[in-house]
Amino acid sequence: MVPLTFVILLLASCDQPAEPLHTDHELNILDDTIINYNHQVVQSENQEIEDFTRRYHWQMKISPTGLRFMIYKNGHGIKAEKEKIATLHYTVKKLNGDLIYIADSVHPMTFELGKNQVANGLEEGVLLMKTGDHAKFILPSHLAFGLLGDLDKIYQRTILVYDVHLVDVKEKNIK
What CATH number is associated with residue 139? Predict the structure, then answer.
């Protein structure tokens, strides 16, 4: 049998508000630490990308999000736009040249633009293209697969280099 004193103490303690795990001050320090860490990661990745583009003499533009892009062969087709279906061939490599994925004429990639079906940076880059264009994109990790990677071949915080050929852009079939 449980002593009555124990039951009274147990019930009385249930009325007390729980102590917060962290104070507001501790949370602010944690927020600042995370922000500083992310800032350092972005700076480090930017330096790696700058070194890479300099080594290969690539004249790339930089979008506001940090995507590096260069259309090196112009096509003459339809402009890629949200809610259209894009078909492309591409290779994706790490900065060190290791091939990660390939989508070619046998296995092209097809996806609807504007539906977040691919890495943010790849979609952003494709939206700058028209059918027939060939482009190179460098995606910092936050525009690629971020802190987790793709849980297959792309590790956490991996910078990716895409070489893309936009093969087709068409309206999606509405049924």
Answer: 3.10.50.40
How many C-alpha atoms does 135 have within 13 Å on its Cβ side? 28
Residue 7: inside a domain: no
Q: Which residues contact 30 (CB under 8 A, 6 or more apart)?
A: 22
The whole-chain average pLDDT of the chain stands at: 88
H/E run at residue 51 = helix 24-56
Reference 127, options 50, 63, 60; nearest CA is 63
pTM of the shown model? 0.81
Is residue 30 one of the residues assigned to a domain?
no
pLDDT band with cut points at 50, 70 and 90 for residue 20: low
* Tokens standing for residue 5: 């004193």
Burial class (CB in 10 A: 0-12, 13-18, 19+), 45: buried
31-63 pLDDT per residue, tens: 778 788 888 888 999 999 999 999 999 999 999
Contacts of 116 (CB under 8 A, 6+ apart): 123
Tokens matching residue 43: 């700076």
- What tokens were used for 70? 């260069």
